[in-house]
């Protein structure tokens, strides 16, 4: 079965700047800010619960770092560390050097609920 290639989509025409377009932009900014506030509020409520779950796994999970509560299996798995400065480092030293350095970053424990 062969796939036929679809033609590349035509480039979009630039938007024409009008008063209604500016109004739409301002409305979207307000909506985005409101959603960001809601996300922040949810993160503040979520964080203490996550910390309690991690503490429970560390206390009860043993070497396997896994425990079961009701129908849930809680575990801590190693995940690669993240570095917030990677983009800047890539600009200075290149992607390969950044990848090598990030590989040396300590692993972090990631909460997994199944």
Number of helices: 3
Mean pLDDT: 89
- Gyration radius, to the nearest Å? 23 Å
Strand percentage lies at 15-25%
Helix content: 40-55%
Note poorly predicted spans. Answer: none
| Lateral strand order in the biggest sheet | 1-2-3
Distance between the termini: 39 Å
Largest sheet: 3 strands, antiparallel
Compact description:
This protein has 114 residues and is α+β, with helices and mostly antiparallel strands. Helix content is 52%, strand content 16%. The longest helix has 42 residues, at 19-60.
Structural summary, described in words:
The chain is of the alpha+beta class. 52% of the residues lie in helices and 16% in strands. It has helices at 19-60, 86-93, 95-103, and strands at residues 66-69, 72-79, 108-113. A hairpin with a 2-residue loop joins strand 1 and strand 2 (72-79). Helix 2 (86-93) crosses helix 3 (95-103). The longest helix has 42 residues, at 19-60. The radius of gyration is 23 Å and the shape is extended. The model has no long low-confidence stretch (mean pLDDT 89).
Write the layout of secondary structure elements.
Elements: H1 19-60, E1 66-69, E2 72-79, H2 86-93, H3 95-103, E3 108-113
Antiparallel strand pairs: 1-2, 2-3
Helix pairs in contact: 2-3
